[in-house]
Amino acid sequence: MSGDWVELAAEDGHRFRAWRSLPPEEPLGSVIVLQEIFGANRHIRWVAEQISAHGYAAYAPSLFDRAGGHLELDYDEAGIALGRERVAALGFEAALRDIAATAAVAEAHGPVGTVGFCWGGTLAWLCATRLGLPSVSYYGSRTQPFFDEAPQAPLLMHFGRKDPLIPADVVDDLRRRHPGIPVHLYEAGHGFNCNERADFHAESAARAWRRSFAFLREHLAEAPRFALHPTLAADCSEVAELPLCRVLLMNDARYPWLILVPKVKDARELVDLSRTDQHRLMDEIARVSAALQSVCDPTKLNVAALGNRVPQLHVHVIARFDGDAAWPDPVWGRGDREPYGEGPKRMLVKTLRAALGS
Length: 358
What we know:
Elements: E1 4-9, E2 15-21, E3 30-34, H1 42-53, E4 57-61, H2 77-90, H3 92-106, E5 112-117, H4 119-130, E6 135-138, E7 155-160, H5 168-177, E8 183-186, H6 202-222, H7 230-235, E9 236-241, E10 245-250, E11 257-262, H8 275-296, E12 300-304, E13 315-320, H9 342-356
Parallel strand pairs: 3-4, 3-5, 5-6, 6-7, 7-8
Antiparallel strand pairs: 1-2, 2-4, 9-10, 10-11, 11-13, 12-13
Helix pairs in contact: 8-9
């Protein structure tokens, strides 16, 4: 097997492992492989390697790390029982936090999508509706309760016509509510893509793979790449990667000054973000504000989005003090910048990262 385990950190500080498989050439993008209830096991790692063989950087997060540690289960009754216990203990919200953290790392290789199986197939649906990631869902048996959620990114759905866990009326319900989503049925049962399961169906698996890679080529190629504006890159140091924003420290020692930049290509105004990302931006502004307040104990926090000189959407969160270089006026255009020394800057970045849980 070609790949390695890497350690990642979620926004709440939880650390977990992910299997990473990289292609030999520059990646076409990134794909997050979402596990079944059997863990990030040998088969899931094999899927990641097949994806990297097609030119994508592949990450398979070990989602069970959050609910008792890494676990690889057999495809038998005992494995099913224990896997269901772990899934119940973990829940979807916690798993999505770890997937969002994986996506923040994976985007270094280009546009990010997901491919999920069984329980991971439902997570793939939620990645499209809540995280805005193009996603491929294989036989997501727990997805129907979320059919009311509107996808924010393209979706592709695969089901087995003989799957006892997903009756035909569930697929019909999906098609009725979301007629624009491609839904494919195969003459196969549950788990037909897994060559280690009794329901493996080679013909159906091959057809589904062809459709899945065509989907990834189309939608990851179209997914925009985020690039930091050169002025921000020159004036700032990176502090943290949040699910939506990159957090920067302005190189001006007169004021503890953070900048949030939504990682959305060509976003200039708040209205350029989706409604989901608008709400996420507000949450991340509050999170950064709380961190800056706890570290610096300022008299006042100034929060502003200007963009007159740097058009890329960015939000300033500045700790102000009675008697600072510009008090009580705004900081813009007041005096000359005073760059940090390397030691104090490293210490402040480290302290802010700890406050942010990054």
